[in-house]
Write a structure and sequence with these properties.
alpha+beta, ten-stranded mixed sheet, disordered N terminus, 9 helices, 710 residues, eleven-stranded antiparallel sheet, elongated, single chain
């Protein structure tokens, strides 16, 4: 744009701050957001000694006045019209000064923060838009505008405009944006931070005006640059975004709540968790009876007696004695105390394959007792390979079904129940269920605790309970990495068994310890065999008018170059507040054939519709689309002082005073042009490091570890 004449003949700019006697130059840039912008002042050195006559105190908190005085000679050649424009910034604060020296001069640089420096303070709490069973409680329901108003009032703001947020309630073009009710839980955080976290993900910006009014504006929407005689130079910028083919909104790790059977496991001397009958220290008596019913927890007297005999035998090597001590220690710490997720309830186990697995497990245990270790003996390594392969085959052969998700049958193309191939697909498990509820102690929305039932020996009742007996949550802990539940005390059932004496069988002995028959209702993740973890994914296709249209190379070129695929992939946007959850429902039912009480699955619920996950994803995609639909950007530099408020499109105003008294104002539309000030997104990243303000990364690690607490 060509340079134009101004509407004045003479203009003098100046900047004032209480206590600074002479300001040589200054630069102030105002931008979107809650972080304070800085006016950098170059001033003439002055006395800092209160005893000096010319001493004037520089106020730590004061105001900034930007002033531009003009004179214009009218057409009659006699009349002079004088005008004054002012911008006043209240509540500013001086920061540490720096000294710049040369051979002939000395200049002090003083940064002055605008009043938003106060916004990092304050404490605000509130929990709104809480859902019970997917439905928001009426007494806790707040619109986005109501939440924003509450934050602004907590910030101490008297004048503010939040009308733009009504679009979230009325916009017919974006039906998925209607009744946006983000759940918020603010716990003693600065109210400005709460406001930022609420609005930025929805595509709105916080704009502080010259009139001290805080305005909430939709990003990208606002007035054009003013065309006046004061405009000196201008530039425009074509909006050529790197447009993907689609936007993929990826949520948090999907939770699958189901009832699982548990099997008793223990930790072996090689550091591996195994079924208790595969442990190297499984009890064996002099008549070759094998099993944990031969000795009782918690002391395991049979193992203790065997250890005493070994220790007193001087012919046995010291390393063997130490190994036996370690085995007794592990037995007391883990056997009958630790149970591992086995299969989802309803899975029937193949007895023949189980027998193969158990026999190999026993042989591995014998090898460990004899000092064999992985990587030290080829024959033992082959035995370990067979053992592990048998375990995988056993699991896959049962075809355990995880309630909820579906997978496409490659042969028929139909969606069928998801069959697990290996146990590692559901590790690490969560420590909770998937269902949400209000924590009675904290009042926070949280995942409900696990539920465990089982048949076990009750010392208080002196008999084995039914499978319907509930077990208190505080009696066990969960080890997510291994899917293991560890009890404070041994959990077992009392039963009977026939024990051999020589070649004859005794009469059945009663009151022998056996593993408890336990079930737990718990949430697990789901991973592919390759390790990719399941998440909520919603792909929104970019409208054709916004897509890049690559031009193909002309034909007839020398060497006939091969044409390459120029299509652009999807852009990944992460929103971990979106969590897809499946919840299997069960009931206790008596089996008429066996006369036993069983846990039977009755239904599978999902929060996809009740929590409107698709609408949440579309709203997130809409925020990304704003960047693609922005009008072309530009900037204009104006002579003097231009008093124009920021809005969603006008993203930056820069005011500069030079050493000659010249003043210029630069307005930036749909972009931020000043290279000395980071753009909005970078400022948010910096703010995150300083003030722990939440931002969202645009990449996702699909093998990300589960957060056990849900």
């Amino acid at each position: 744009m060509d340079e134009k004449d101004n509407d004045f003949d003479l203009g003098i700019g100046s900047v004032f701050y209480p206590g600074i006697l002479k300001i040589q130059s200054a630069e102030y840039i105002r931008s979107h957001g809650i972080a304070p912008d800085v006016c950098t002042i170059d001033m003439v050195p002055q006395s800092l000694n209160p005893k000096d006559k010319d001493y004037v105190k520089i106020e730590p908190e004061g105001y900034l006045i930007f002033q531009f005085d003009t004179e214009k000679l009218e057409k009659d050649g006699i009349t002079v019209t004088k005008k004054r424009r002012q911008i006043v910034l209240q509540g500013c604060r001086v920061d540490l000064a720096a000294v710049s020296r040369s051979e002939n001069s000395e200049v002090w640089k003083i940064p002055v923060f605008d009043r938003r420096w106060r916004w990092k303070f304050g404490s605000y709490s509130g929990h709104w838009n809480i859902k019970k069973n997917g439905i928001i409680e009426k007494r806790k329901e707040k619109t986005v505008r109501e939440l924003a108003d509450m934050c602004l009032e907590a910030m101490g703001e008297v004048k503010y405009e939040t009308k733009a947020l009504d679009e979230l309630e009325k916009n017919k073009k974006l039906p998925y944006r209607k009744k946006v009710r983000p759940e918020v839980h603010w716990d003693r955080i600065p109210p400005a931070q709460a406001l930022h976290d609420l609005l930025t993900p929805l595509g709105y910006r916080i704009c502080l005006g010259w009139d001290e009014v805080v305005r909430i504006c939709k990003f990208g929407e606002g007035a054009l640059l003013p065309i006046t005689d004061d405009l000196m130079t201008g530039s425009f910028e074509l909006n050529l975004p790197e447009t993907p083919s689609s936007i993929s909104v990826i949520g948090n790790i999907t939770m699958h709540e189901a009832a699982w059977e548990l099997e008793a496991v223990g930790l072996d001397i090689d550091g591996e968790w195994k079924p208790i009958n595969h442990l190297s220290y499984i009890p064996i008596d002099q008549f070759k009876n094998v099993g944990w019913h031969l000795t009782r927890p918690p002391n395991f007297g049979g193992l203790e007696t065997t250890l005493d005999e070994i220790i007193n035998n001087k012919t046995i090597k010291p390393e063997v004695k130490e190994r036996r001590k370690e085995q007794l220690k592990l037995a007391r710490e883990t056997v009958f105390r630790c149970y591992r997720l086995k299969y989802p309830v309803g899975t029937k186990e193949d007895k023949k394959q189980r027998l193969v697995y158990d026999r190999l497990g026993f042989r591995v245990g014998v090898g460990l007792t004899n000092g064999k270790r992985r990587g030290e003996d080829k024959a033992f390594d082959k035995l370990l390979e067979k053992y592990e392969a048998a375990g995988r085959k056993l699991y896959e052969k049962q075809k355990p079904i995880l309630p909820g998700p579906k997978q496409k049958n490659p042969k028929t193309g139909k969606l069928e129940d998801y069959e697990l191939k290996e146990f590692e697909q559901v590790l690490p498990c969560f420590e909770t269920r998937a269902e949400l509820g209000i924590d009675p102690f904290t009042g926070m929305l949280a995942r409900k605790p696990t539920i465990m039932t089982g048949s076990f020996y009750s010392g208080r009742k002196e008999y084995n309970t039914l499978i319907t007996e509930f077990i208190q949550r505080d009696l066990y802990e969960i080890i997510p990495e291994f899917g293991i539940i560890k009890f404070q005390q041994p959990m077992m059932r009392m039963g009977q068994a026939k024990l051999k004496v020589g070649k004859k069988n005794r009469e059945p002995e009663t009151c022998l310890p056996f593993p408890a028959d336990l079930r737990i209702l718990i949430a697990v993740p789901l991973k592919s065999v390759e390790g990719e973890i399941s998440r909520f994914v919603y792909e929104h296709e970019i409208p054709k008018k916004f897509r890049n249209k690559p031009i193909s190379i002309p034909s007839g070129l020398e060497d006939n170059p091969r044409k390459i695929d120029l299509n652009v992939g999807t852009k990944v946007v992460v929103d971990e507040q979106i969590t897809l959850a499946y919840q299997a429902k069960y009931k206790f039912q008596k089996n008429t054939k066996t006369d036993k009480i069983e846990i039977v699955q009755t239904d599978v619920l999902t929060n996809f519709k009740t929590e409107e996950l698709e609408k949440l994803a579309l709203a997130q995609a809409d925020v990304e689309l704003i960047n693609l639909e922005l009008e072309d950007g530009g900037s204009g530099t104006y002579a003097g002082l231009i008093k124009v408020n920021l809005d969603g499109a006008l993203q930056q105003v820069a005011i500069r005073l030079d050493t000659q008294g010249g003043m210029k104002t630069t307005l930036s539309l749909n972009r931020e042009v000043n290279i000395t000030v980071p753009d909005f997104n970078e400022r948010q990243r910096n703010q995150h490091l300083k003030e722990m303000i939440k931002i969202y990364n645009q990449t996702v690690d699909k093998t990300k570890k589960v957060k056990p607490k849900g």
